[in-house]
Amino acid sequence: MRPTEHGQPAVAPATDTVTTVVHLVRHGEVANPGHILYGRLPGFHLSEAGRLMAKAAADFLAGRDVTVLRSSPLERALESAEPIAADFSLPILVDDRLIEAANHFEGLHFGVGDGALRQPRYWRHLCNPFRPSWGEPYTEVVARMLAAVRDAAAAARGHEAVCVSHQLPIWVTRRWVEGRRLWHDPRRRQCALGSVTSLTLVGDRVTGLTYHEPSGHSQSRVAGA
After folding, report:
1. pLDDT attached to residue 222
2. Rounded-to-integer distance, Cα 116 and Cα 47, Å
3. Is residue 218 in a domain?
4. What is the residue range of 169's domain?
5. CATH number of the domain residue 85 falls in
6. Are 80 and 165 in contact (CB under 8 A)?
7. 9 in a structural domain
8. C-alpha separations of 115 from 23, 36, 110, 222 in Å
């Protein structure tokens, strides 16, 4: 079902009582010496620290009943999925619905007092923080993420699945599950690099959520993450 702007989940009759867990793993740190908002741009790979974060996420999941592994098509997500694939002897299935949110500032420096914010031609993209006007609407991000989660849950029915994605898609999905409004302060996202946000589903209904940072607390505000 399509989410609303305020993150209110729709209620439907339960027809399946089988419990499945879907782990939403955020990729590790990316090598980004230019400090641009890389978004969906190709060619951005994990840093050495990012590879350690990916391994920490895989170690955290070790011993779980993971039977399905899916990933965003972007390099940093696929590389973060590799140690999980190795540990569970699973193929990595690319799911385009797990991709980073589209952003009009992709490829630019974006910050207060510098970069794109100093150029009037970009100001029109900042007029509506609730949609948001600078990129893919939050409701559309949540709709595609929930579809990906439910498909992964169906494939892993009664077991566990891992979906490797990105900060904003994971965070707004969590906000929807928790019944919170989708617009938010990006500085307050609880979705650190290499983190694991786990959704428990009964049938296709999300009934529980937990959050872990296997790499320890880390800076979660990273351009294009």
Report:
1. 46
2. 25
3. no
4. 19-212
5. 3.40.50.1240
6. no
7. no
8. 35, 9, 5, 16
Q: How many distinct helices (H) and strands (E) make up the chain?
A: 4, 8
Spatial separation of the C-alpha atoms in residues 68 and 53, rounded to whole Å: 20
Contact by Cβ (8 Å): 199, 177 = yes
Contact 224, 76 (CB under 8 A): no
pTM of the model: 0.85
Mean pLDDT of the 151-168 span: 97
The set of residues, in sequence order, having a beta carbon less than 8 Å from that of 191 and lying 6+ positions away, is: 26, 167, 170, 171, 174, 197, 220
Phi and psi based region of residue 127 (left: phi greater than 0; alpha: psi -120 to 50; beta: remaining): alpha
CA dist., res. 156 & res. 133, Å (int): 36
The pLDDT tens digits of the residues spanning 122-157 come to 545 455 565 665 678 999 999 999 999 999 999 999
What percent of the chain is helix, strand and coil (3-state, nearest 5)?
A: 30, 20, 50
Query: Which residues, including other chains, have CB under 8 Å from residue 118's CB and lie 6 or more apart?
Result: none
CA angle 179, 180, 184 (to 5 degrees): 155
Sign of CA dihedral 78, 79, 84, 87: positive
Q: Is residue 224 part of a domain?
A: no
Quick one: tokens of 81? 């999925």
Residue 11 domain flag: no
Query: What SS3 state is found at 157?
Result: coil
